[in-house]
Amino acid sequence: xxxxxxxxxxxxxxxxxxxxxxxxxxxxxxxxxxxxxxxxx
Length: 41
Description:
Elements: H1 3-40
């Protein structure tokens, strides 16, 4: 493996992890917002 290939793989892995983290965060934020709205009514 060349250093460039390792760098590309690490960057791609980081991008995928960030994407998953943002999706999970959005999911939890939306759930908390729904729960807060439900508690108000």
